[in-house]
């Protein structure tokens, strides 16, 4: 077996699959000359955001409180504080895309709230990754068989298989469109972005003795 001819190939697979998650951030801000007033307003606005997220129920799969920032605003000529600023950011993960636009608009309608996103992604354990790996192995075997056939031989055994990496595109920002007609509530149309998934393997196979000439 060790003296058998060997063919080395690379197998690749590329897929574009529907996203499984959408992530966006909600940032509440406050500003006032008095520090305590700034903190109070910030807490109240953050609480209002929490109420809306709680009301969304299972639509919100996960939420994480991010960075809290409180800083003074000073005059250029010295250290005299003229106002205090504060902000709190919450990262929200949603799996139900049908309710995503409505939820984002409700949050954006709050006082001193900034909403950014969504960014589309796959779950870390998405079946798409497994399917891509299987497809890459199948591609490697198909290539090995093609080379063997061209030599008048056939693939006999696998010698080595190496995973060269599984790649997924970074989260992609959605395309959004707002529409308002008269007194009707605003609507937000979101186009989920397909997620590219790519897998590659390197494989070595033994083949039967080639028929040359």
UniProtKB/TrEMBL annotation:
<dbReference type="InterPro" id="IPR007497">
    <property type="entry name" value="SIMPL/DUF541"/>
</dbReference>
<dbReference type="Pfam" id="PF04402">
    <property type="entry name" value="SIMPL"/>
</dbReference>
<dbReference type="InterPro" id="IPR052022">
    <property type="entry name" value="26kDa_periplasmic_antigen"/>
</dbReference>
<protein>
    <recommendedName>
        <fullName>SIMPL domain-containing protein</fullName>
    </recommendedName>
</protein>
<dbReference type="GO" id="GO:0006974">
    <property type="term" value="P:DNA damage response"/>
</dbReference>
